[in-house]
Structures are given as structure tokens and as C-alpha cells.
Amino acid sequence: MKRALALIDSKMNQAKGWLRDPNAPPGDAGEQAVRQIIDEAGKVGELCAGKERKDILGTCKTLGQMTDQVADLRARGQGATPAAMQKAQQVSQGLDLLTAKVENAARKLEALTNSKQAIEKKKKAAQSWLADPNGGPEGEENIRALLAEAKKIAELCEDPKDREDILRSLGEIAALTAKLSDLRKQGKGDTPEARALAKQIATSLQNLQNKVNRAVANSRPVKAAVNMEGKVEQAQRWIDNPSVDDRGVGQAAIRGLVAEGRRLANSMMGPFRQDMLARCDRVEQLAGQLAELAARGEGDTPQARAVAAQLQEALKDLKSKMQEAMTQEVSDVFSDTTTPIKLLAVAATAPLDAPNREEVFEDRAANFETHAARLGATAEKAAAVGAANKATVEGIQAAVKTSRELTPQVVSAARIMLRNPGNQAAHEHFETMKNQWIDNVEKMTGLVDEAIDTRSLLDASEEAIKKDIDKCKVAMANMQPQMLVAGATSIARRANRILLVAKREVENSEDPKFREAVKNASDELSKTISPMVLEAKAVAGNISDPALQKGFLDSGYRILGAVAKVREAFQPPEPEFPPPPPDLEHLRVTDEAATTPNPPLLREQSTSQPHLSQERMIRFPRNLRLARW
């Protein structure tokens, strides 16, 4: 909660700056800041319940749609029009409103938690006082303080029943406590009446604590499973039996899936974002219809079954698209994890006479922080959307937490080194922090790879390399060497990422055939990367040379072919079926009886009545042959 509020606060100026500038391009860091604020606010909304939850999530959804409209207008060159500027101003005002709602929700949740903990502490002291007939006035003060905390919780309750139950108990306990206190002041604390009162108050305090715990629980949503498969399973159980009370788990799982889908949409562009949001809206709409039918006692009607079937199909479709989008994002974001921190190190050690030394450093520091934030956000999505088990999910969450703690420390250490050139202690401190950050990100990368399907990641990487090659073709056609270098660099990084994934799979596999196949394919891929980089440098130096262009494209396609072979090595082997039967048209069936005469009849003399010439005749089946008697 505190981290979400801190992140919202840190991104607000950047977001407001993008909204104020009608010429700010769509998709840059300013727009990403707006979307990060909406995303973090949504996470807080997921921790709330009732009207507060609905209000925050509804505002997030509206602001997301309005941000899409602003970005679309700017992409069409209409950012300076009155309509676009008005829409941007509305988003800016909406961010202020959303922040206020999130802060109020955070304060409320914190107050509920603090009061609940205070009641637990005060109750122990109160019970000790009740058990001691000669207890002093401080025990009564503890009970009064406990009742005051319970009243705070009652005032924060949205459910009137919870509120009334708590307030009723407060009145009863206060009256009983006052009566017991009077008896003790009169020296009658050890009488049967006083002891009965003390016992009654102790029971009432326990009941009050139970009511308070229930009210606090009702103020928070039911927790869904930690990963997508678990959420889908919970949702499916509710869809199959919407009339059965599952304490809201199924609907909470669907809300969680929809929220993750919208977070994924925030990192997508244009029509892809709209498509994902439309799928989320569809699931949300159908889930609402089914919940409404179930609430009216119509969960088993034909109409409810029809809605459930539509919801099941929509949920399956959303899950597939989310996994596809998440895999593509992992392929893009984790293709290069360390270049920004290396560039930060270069900027921090720049000579004193380097031009724009401070400005370059600040730019590199901002890029590093943005990159680290993207890594963490993408890793969290992989944990939520991938097929990870609980241990992997918790590992990713721990690695993300460590990354968020280390990132500002790395920047601080780099800044100290910048301002103290040649200082050995500053240099060693930065190197230590940098290595810790890189080690943690490598751990995070491995866990993310565990959370997603390897073949899907390889497919996404292969498609991305194809797009990079297409960009390089455009760069050569337009004589843009920088664009060519960027595309070639991306190809090399993606290929190296594939090698890392393949190496990890080989290390974790016990199948010798699989290991050999993947290793051989990886070795071939490894041999293609350096030649492509050299070809790219040659073309960048003379981009109009057709022969150099062809050489570069050939090397790019060799990488693509080698990537395909790595992917094929991960395909499951074809099952070994028995050979097919002969062609029935050429199969001739003959009746052996047509060519083989029937065996002769065997005659057996009757031994029981020798005077009779009676015979028993035995006929064998037509095709039974007797080799030997």
C-alpha cells in the first residue's frame, strides 16, 4: 500500500507534464507514467471492498479510456486541438481525484488494521483486570480504550448490520463495566455478583472481538488464488454452480483476472490495447449478469446456464490472449536486462571535461530507473498470468521487491561516483551495488522463465526477430544507419536471450536426447550472431551498397533459421505408431475350405457294448489341422 502511494507520488509530475504538453508524443515516458499511476491505483482498489472498491476501479477504467483518447489524438497530429487539450486537462484533474480516493482508502485500511491490533492488545489487559477482584482503575481504562477502538471500526463499516452489532455490544459492555467498577469501589469485588459480572464482561469482550474481526474481514475482499490457473479454477467452480455460496471466491477470481488483463492492456499499443480491454469488459459484463441472476435465485435457470456458457468461453478467450500478450511483453522487456545499468556506469565515470556530463548522467539514471520499473512490472505480470506455482510466484515477488530497493541505491552510488571522480571507495561501492542489482535481475529472469511456457517464449522471440529484420529492411531502403544498428542490436539481444533460455532448459533436463538436440541447435545459433553483427557494422558504414545489404540480410535470415531449429528442438517428439496396414484393395481373402478337403471322419468303436457295431463319428472344424496324434 505504501509502495503504491509512493510510486503514484513519484510519477505524478512526469504524468502531468505529458498531459500539459500538446506536442508530447504518445507512448513516451510521460504516458507510461500516467498508466503506471492508474495501474498502482487499481492495485489499491483491489484491496478494498464494496462501494470504495467499485469507485476506485471505475475511476481507473474511465481514466484509462480517456488516456487512450488523448494518445490517439496526438498520434494523428491533433494534440494541440481544443478537444485534445480539454481531454488531457480532464485526465489531469482525474488523476488528482483518483489519488485522493486512493489515499482515503489507504488511510481507512490502515485505521482498521491499527484499531484491530489495538483491541487485541487491550483485551489481554482487560481480561487480567476482570480476573482480579482487587484490580485497580487502570483495568477499567483499558476496557474503555478498547471500546473506543471498536467504535472507530464501527464508524468505518460499510455494512449497517456489522456497524449496529458492534455499537450494541459497546453499550452493553460499557454498562456492565460501570456496574462492576461500582461494586469494586464498594469493596464487593469478590462477591458472587461481581464475579458473575466479570465473567459476563469477559464473554462479551470475546464476542465483541469476533464481531470486529468479521467487520474488518468484510471490509476487505476475499483473496483469490495467486496465479492465473488457480483463479481460472476458482472462477470455473462458481460458473458451474453460481447458486452455491462460495463466499465470493469465484467472483473475486474473475475480478482479479480482469484487473490483470487491464494491466496488460496498459503496456500494449493502439488496437491491441482496445482488443484486450474489450475482452476484459465482456468477461466483466457476463460475470455481472450471472451474479445478478444468482442473487435473484435464478442461478439454475436456462438463462443462467446460457450466460454461464458465454462467460466460460469469454474467460477462456481472455486467458489465451493474456498469456499471449504477457509472453510477448516478457520477450521484449527481458531481451536485454543489463545495458541501461552499464550505460549508467559509463556516464558516472565520464571525464570532468566531457560535454553535458551532468545532463547525460541524469538522462541515463532516469532511463535505468524506468527500465528497472518495467522489469519489475513485467515480472509481476508473469507471476500473475503465467503458469507458475506458488513458490515461483513468491520468488518473483521477492526478487521484484529487492530490485525496487536496490535501484535507488544504485543510482545514489553512481551519483556519488560522478561527483567524486577517482575516488576508489566510491567506485567500489558502486560496483558492489551494481553487481547486487545484476545478480538479483538474473535471478528474477530465471524465475520469470519458469513462470511462462518456453515454447511460447521462443515463438514470440522468433516473431520479434522477423519484425526486427523487416525494420532493418526499411532502414536500408530509407538510408537510415542508426535505425539499422538499432534493429541489428535487437536481433542480437533476442538471439542471446534464446541461448540463455535454452541453456537453462538443458541444465534442468534429465533427458539426454533432449539435451543433445537443444545443445546442438543452440551451438548453431551461437555461431550466427557475431557474423550478423559484423555485417550490420559494414552496412551501417556504407548503407547504399547492395552487396553489403544482401550480406546483412542473409546473416539475419541465418539467425532466424537457427532460432527455428532451437524452437523445433523443444517440440515434443512424434509418437511412434505401428506400421500402417496393407492397402485393402490389394488384400485377397481366400477360403481355405475351398482348396482343402474336409478331414476324414474318425470312427471309434464302442468299448462298453462290443456286441453292437455302433460307431461314434467325430467331425473336426473345417480349418483345424492336426499335426500329429
UniProtKB/TrEMBL annotation:
Output the superkingdom of the source species: Eukaryota
Q: Which residues cross the membrane?
A: none
Localization recorded for this chain is: Cell junction, Adherens junction; Cell membrane, Sarcolemma; Cell projection, Podosome; Cytoplasm, Cytoskeleton
GO biological process annotations for this chain's record? cell adhesion
Predominant location category = other
Coiled coil located at which positions?
Answer: 95-122
Instruction: Give the bilayer topology.
Output: Peripheral membrane protein
A GO cellular component annotation in the UniProt record:
adherens junction
PROSITE patterns per the UniProt record, alphabetical: VINCULIN_2
* Keyword annotations from UniProtKB, A to Z: Actin-binding, Cell adhesion, Cell junction, Cell membrane, Coiled coil, Cytoplasm, Cytoskeleton, Membrane, Repeat
Short name of one Pfam family for this protein? Vinculin
Segments carrying the region annotation (Disordered) are 591-614
Q: Name one GO molecular function term.
A: structural molecule activity
Described by its record, this protein's role is as follows:
Actin filament (F-actin)-binding protein involved in cell-matrix adhesion and cell-cell adhesion. Regulates cell-surface E-cadherin expression and potentiates mechanosensing by the E-cadherin complex. May also play important roles in cell morphology and locomotion.
Q: Belongs to which family?
A: Belongs to the vinculin/alpha-catenin family.
The protein's name in its UniProt record: Vinculin
